[in-house]
Amino acid sequence: MQTAPVIPPAAPNSPLVESSTLGKYRWTICSLVFFATTVNYLDRAVISLLKPYLEVEFKWNSGDYANIEIAFKLAYSLGMLGVGRIIDKLGTKMGYALSTFLWSLAAIGHAFVSSTLGFSVARAFLGVTEAGNFPAAIKTTAEWFPQKERALATGIFNSGSNVGAIIAPLSVPIIAETIGWQWAFIITGALGFVWLVLWFYFYEVPARHAKLTKAEFDYIHSDVDDLAAASIETEPKVSWFKLLTFRQTWAFVLGKFLTDPIWWFYLFWLPDFLNKQYGLKGTAVSLPVAVVYILSSVGSIGGGWIPLNFIRNGWPAFKARKTSMLLIALCVFPIVFAQKLGQVDMWLAVLVIGIAAAAHQAWSANIFTTVSDMFPKRAVASVTGIGGMAGGLGGIALTALVQKRMFVHYESIGQLDKAYFIMFWICGAAYLLAWVLMHFLAPRMKKIDLG
User: Fold this and answer.
1) What is the reported pTM?
2) CATH classification of 24-226, choosing from 1.20.1250.20, 3.30.300.30, 1.10.8.590, 1.10.10.10?
């Protein structure tokens, strides 16, 4: 359990040391969370790149692969239901470490699977353990950054998901070709243990960080609404049932339910799209996939910078956040033209998909930050977990009701391009619908009082 801080919070009018860049220790913490998120996404992306090898060895079709994907998403969703509560109880240091340790074991475990059912079990274990990353990361950000910097910090660490997805296509096919697909799971999974060493060496909450200056501590807790919360959560935790009575919770839940599945689609089906539409196989798929995720990294950090720039120009935080999210949602829509552009040149399709993926990451940086905008720190991991569960369920629904049935059907009649056409329209519309619903439920993103 976390204890009260040993450093007193700043008075509202005390001088603060502010910089346009992250403070020394805030940068260290952000880097650690970035590294964890990179490993998290690298581990989950490996199977999409090994799909051609595993299809041959285990005789998979699109339905088999979709079932394995559903096993991961279902476990991820169920994990999200409880992991936020665990992290709120254990604290970020031990909660994050436990999650990373377990998902690294699960990732390595894929190498020892010998059946399709075994892959479903391994993916389920990976899903339930990987669920801890984002609740822990968002809670860490809420503890270490003032409100105006949280979207930028979230954008930076969330870009790790893109870096993981970039590293995967540049390394996994080479490993598979040279020493076998099993070693791709082992090598990537082992990176989590490297992170654990760094985490225990460098991380501590601000209140107990031995080298944190009072000026930086005061800056972290410089929000007026944050002064009372500087004690790092000594109040009782809040039940899920109470959290679900707030419109703000449902705004986040619906936003995640509608948009998370789109990122799952990119992650699990992009290599297949390039294979089936343009005949790219093995290492040939590496560069186009890497380009998409390089663009995503730019979008992730840019998505955090946009509202920060608005706030610096005097906008209230909620207006800055919502305006940014609307602009981002509009940037996704051109993906509906991906196949038309691809008929001219494959790289035009890659570019428009990359822009849409970048917009998703920009959206993600902001939607995650709405949790700490609207909820006190003691509820952040729990609300993030509830929303993450909703995102996972949305991914399951999309895979089971749309992708699995639709892709299998159109593949059986030799018209798989129609399935991708429908999916790209779903991608283009999802964010605009999510923005409208979030605006209706939480128009000013008012911070709730949990009593």
Assistant:
1) 0.70
2) 1.20.1250.20
